[in-house]
Amino acid sequence: MSLHFTDEDFLEAWKELDKPQLEGGWEFFTETMGVKIYRLYDKETGLYEYKVFGVLATCTPELCADVYMDLPYRKQWDGYVKELHEKDYDGHSAIYWEVKYPFPLSNRDYVYVRERRDVDVDSRKIWVVLAKSSPQSPLPEKSGVQRVNDYKQTVAMESDGACGTKERSACLPYRHAEGLWQLLKLLPEEQEMNTLGGKSHQSHEDCIFQPIVQ
After folding, report:
1. Topology adopted by domain 7-73+117-133+149-204
2. Angle 113-70-78 (CA atoms, 0-180°, nearest 5)?
3. Which positions make up the signal peptide (predicted)?
C-alpha cells in the first residue's frame, strides 16, 4: 500500500488522457513538436502550473515509464543534473535532485517521493508516474541553492495505437521566467529521453527508435 499517493490520485492522473480538464482558468500557452501546453496562474503565489498533452511517436509507453524511473540513466543524458540520487530517510525512500539553472538564476533542488503504477482499465493499459515534494525528509538545504518544497508532477501514458505513446503530464510550480526556460529545455529533452532511453532498453522492445533531438 502506498504511503504517499491514493488510488484517487492515480485515477485523476489518467482520466485526462481521454478528456483534458481545462476548466477553472487554464489557458492555451503554446504548441510545438506535436505537443500542446496549457498553463494556470495562481494569483496568491505568482506561480504557474503547466499541463502538457501530446504523442511521443518513437517510444512505447512501457519504455517511457521505464526511462522515467531510471535515475542512473538520467544522469547520463540530462546535462542539467547537478546531483541525483535516491536514499532511505527515517524508513521511507526519497529522491534528492539538484538542477542546474542558467545565470542569473540559482540552482534549484528537490526532495521528493514518487510511485509508478501500471493500470488496467477496460482493456486499456495505462502507465502512471506520480511525484511530489517530501519536505519531511531530513535533508538540509544547501547554501546558494533554492529548495522547492511544493513540487508536484503527474505523468500518464498509454499506447497511441501504433509504436508510440499518448502522454499527459502536469507539473507545478514555476514563475513565468523559470517556466519558460524549463519548457524550452523540457520539450527537446523529453523526446531525447525517450529516444535515447529506447536505445538503452532496445532489447526489451520491438520498436525502432530514431534520433530526434529531457
Report:
1. Alpha-D-Glucose-1,6-Bisphosphate; Chain A, domain 4 (3.30.530)
2. 100
3. none
Sequence spans of domains, the chain: 7-73+117-133+149-204
Q: What's 204's DSSP letter? A: G
Closest residue by Cα to residue 165 from 55, 65, 62:
55
Between CA 186 and CA 128 the distance in angstroms is 19
Q: Encode pLDDT of 55-110 as tens digits.
A: 877 788 888 889 889 999 889 888 889 999 998 877 788 999 999 988 888 999 99
DSSP 149: S
Please give the grid coordinates belonging to residue 82.
547537478
Q: Do you find a cis peptide bond into 104, omega within 30 degrees of 0? A: yes
**Residue in this structure with the C-alpha cell 529522491, named with its chain if needed:** 95
For residue 145 the three cell numbers come to 541553492
Place of cell 491514493: 6
In this prediction the pTM is 0.77
pLDDT digits (tens, 9 = 90+) for 191-210: 444 444 444 444 333 222 22
Distance of alpha carbon 78 from alpha carbon 206, whole angstroms: 25
Long-range contacts made by residues 88-91, C-beta under 8 angstroms, separation at least 24?
89/137, 89/138, 89/139, 90/137, 90/138
